[in-house]
Amino acid sequence: MSILEKIDVNNTPDHIAIIMDGNGRWAQKQGHDRLFGHNFGVESVRETLKAAQKANVKYLTLYAFSTENWNRPKEEVDGLMDLLVRSLGNEVEELNKSNVRILTIGDMDGLPEFCQAELKSAYERTKDNTGVNLILALNYSARWELVNAMKKIAGKIQSNELTPEDIDEDAIIGELTTCQIPDPELLIRTSGEHRVSNFLLWQIAYSEFHFTEVLWPDFKEEDLFEAILDYQSRERRFGMVSEQIEKNA
Ligand code: IPE
Ligand code: IPE
Ligand code: MG
Q1: What pTM value is reported for the model?
Q2: Does the annotation count 69 as an active-site position?
Q3: Index of the ligand 2 atom closest to the CA of residue 68
């Protein structure tokens, strides 16, 4: 029986978010520079997307560049921006054919103009597609997102569109860059690091976490299926007790 066949199709996460980590270490282990690892990471993105399609996942969010990643050496940052544009250019046709919709979260205005243009064109080209939503987190940090949401809410209060009493969870969700996207049921981080690194802090309030030692360029279809199986072995209690969950099942 293949791993895919072991997956319960009635209990797959609609949304999987991945912190794709370990490209640099993967490359350095083989005596190459870090960009070599980032290049190979693109192949893992391709594989993971295909696996997500097979497993009927509807939203796949990939943490591709954090706000903190600007602090890396300029050569690496420039290489990552080039890689983003090159990969989108190469893949968008194929993605469009397979009905993938490309979305972004993060501060797009802070990206170089040539990246913004490529992203906008990928977004326009795929916006009517109804298959997997591929969400690229770029120049993203959860604290930036939350600060931004607070500023927008304050502005609405100032212009009398809202009162402080109107602020509830939905009002906050509506100002996040993920406002059209459901929360991820499953968060995966590769490379053996057990931290969140400023990713989706609001949205992962009740996500299940799956950590794997696999470095991102080695992450393949089966690794995504393994993560889904691990997710399916968990009991999600949302504050309740086991007996209540069993009764509702
Ligand atoms: C993840 O791999 C990719 C990005 C953050 C862009 P890293 O580049 O962080 O690889 P390691 O963690 O240094 O091995
Ligand atoms: C998190 O990885 C960001 C991305 C995967 C894009 P990092 O490698 O930047 O995270 P830290 O610095 O180890 O926490
Ligand atoms: Mg890293």
Answers
A1: 0.98
A2: yes
A3: 9
